[in-house]
Design goal:
Number of helices: 16
Bound molecules: NADPH dihydro-nicotinamide-adenine-dinucleotide phosphate
CATH architecture of the largest domain: 3-Layer(aba) Sandwich
Number of strands: 14
CATH topology of the largest domain: Rossmann fold
Radius of gyration: 21 Å
Shape: globular
Largest sheet: 7 strands, mixed
Strand content: 15-25%
Number of domains: 3
């Protein structure tokens, strides 16, 4: 059988098996398909490694375990509420489970399994000893008082604390879980377990957090995009950039792009996007940070305040830009968005969010020579800096801003080099999906082979 035919047949057979085992989990299937399309051919090409016989991919796609639990809490009116909490412990071959907690009404098992699976590869790419996990709840912090969020976090942690620990599983933040939630979660963990330990990352500086952790995902994505852009001899200075989202990742993406001389013309939230052709400078960014992190308002207020246009219910991908940084949520950029980006001059797309581009959109970027960075590589700066926070907690030290930023820059450069090593097609053209998946997979697969059938 010709090689290409064998790749297709073996990938299809794996995906048939996998899809049957995970019915009704479209996001998980989407994430695994992206990996299988690269890793199955890689295993076919390297039979001596023995990965197929050892069923490495079958084992990697089956979580070590999943916890699902009731989270009862009382709202400010005295009404009882019930949400569903989860922790997916996916793979701990190279280190303790590590991955964020997401509080959002769209959270379900499929979303968390996709995120936990992606996390295995991302964490491997950081070169730090971190396994893959993810968790959260279908709780919506929007419109809740601080007291309600605190009661919810305390109830959630009352169950979760049985399953996590500084050397077993170390959660962090994600959508809907920022410094406020991490504080409440940490407080409850400490109260129940009676020990002060680095069991969560993303902590505030006063109780064991790391400098640069809040900035790390956004900064890291911009560092990664700079590496990619410079790899083909262009620069970020003067580039017009489109960013989606206006939360943690988006905010620090805007900050770093400004610092590097680019101009950001869009930000968004789940109600729509704002287009500011003048650029979102540091003063306007300070407004967004106060709006989103303190007043917890809607992005529409930005447009009203700075007199620019707000596009209700729309995404920013129709706006002309050189580079795009999707930084909100999964599947927020589809094939028609990819087409309009290209039509409007976009030359590169760098994922701040996890899996924001659909499978079709990614294929379109590849076919049309649009640079594309998968989130497992480009947004790995967040978890990498969480790893640095864990190291500081163990050592009982606090590194300076410059030290942490220097390590983050080095890690993003290293991830880029790994992608180039495994993903270079011809000349300077790099397939970053291939590069990231093979590099991430290889380290975990080797560790699993060494540790026997567990
Ligand atoms: P935040 O909660 O701080 O911000 C999320 C942003 O995305 C908000 O602007 C939110 O709008 C928007 N958003 C969320 N859900 C939707 C939706 N269904 N449709 C449209 N917009 C939506 O989260 P983060 O910035 O931390 O996370 C953003 C993305 O980055 C996620 O995919 C996350 O997994 C990924 N990521 C985050 C890391 C981190 O360190 N925080 C690390 C690596 C990846 P609204 O306010 O209206 O809900």
């Amino acid at each position: 059988m010709a090689a290409a035919q064998q790749y297709r047949a073996e990938t299809a057979s794996f995906m048939d098996w996998f899809t049957q085992r995970n019915p009704g989990e479209p996001e998980f299937i989407q994430a695994v398909r992206e990996v299988a399309e690269v890793v199955v051919p890689y295993m076919v090409d390297h039979p001596k490694k023995g990965y197929r016989e050892a069923k490495i991919l079958e084992r990697m796609t089956e979580p070590d375990r999943v916890f699902i639990f009731r989270v009862p809490w009382m709202d400010d009116r005295g009404v009882f509420q019930v949400n569903r909490g989860y922790r997916v412990q996916m793979n701990n071959s190279i280190g303790p489970y590590k991955g964020g907690l997401r509080f959002h009404p769209t959270v379900n098992l499929s979303v968390l399994k996709f995120l936990a699976f992606e996390q295995i590869f991302k964490n491997s790419l950081t070169t730090l000893p971190l396994g893959g996990g993810k968790g959260g709840a279908d709780f919506d912090p929007k419109g809740k008082s601080d007291a309600e969020v605190m009661r919810f976090c305390q109830s959630f942690m009352t169950e979760l604390c049985k399953h996590i620990g500084a050397v077993t599983d170390v959660p962090a933040g994600d959508i809907g879980v920022g410094a406020r939630e991490i504080g409440y979660l940490f407080g409850q963990y400490k109260r129940i377990r009676g020990n002060f330990t680095g069991v969560l990352t993303g902590k505030s500086l006063t109780y064991g957090g790391s400098l640069i952790r809040p900035e790390a995902t956004g900064y890291g994505n911009v560092y990664f995009s700079r590496e990619m852009i410079e790899h083909v001899d262009r620069g970020l200075d003067g580039a017009v950039c489109s960013v989606s989202g206006s939360g943690n990742v988006a905010q620090y993406t805007v900050e770093k792009l400004n610092e590097l001389g680019a101009k950001v013309v869009t930000v968004s939230d789940s109600s729509g996007f704002v287009h500011d052709p003048e650029g979102i400078d540091s003063e306007k960014l300070a407004f967004i940070m106060a709006l989103k992190n303190e007043r917890r308002g809607r992005i529409k207020e930005y447009a009203e305040h700075f007199k620019c246009q707000f596009f209700e219910g729309q995404k920013p991908w129709g706006v002309a830009c050189d580079y795009a940084y999707p930084s909100a949520t999964q599947n927020e950029l589809d094939l028609s968005d990819a087409r309009s980006l290209l039509d409007n001059g976009c030359k590169g797309v760098f994922e701040g969010a996890n899996m924001p581009c659909t499978h079709d959109a990614v294929a379109f970027f590849h076919e049309n020579n649009v640079m594309y960075a998968p989130g497992k590589a480009s947004n790995a700066g967040g978890v990498a800096t969480s790893g640095l926070e864990m190291s500081q907690n163990k050592l009982g030290l606090s590194w300076t801003r410059e030290e942490v930023d220097g390590k983050l820059t080095g890690i993003m450069r290293n991830i880029h080099q790994q992608c180039v090593k495994h993903g270079t097609l011809d000349g300077k053209r790099v397939d970053y999906v291939k590069g990231a998946n093979i590099a991430g997979f290889e380290k975990v697969a080797q560790a699993m082979m060494s540790q026997g059938l567990v």
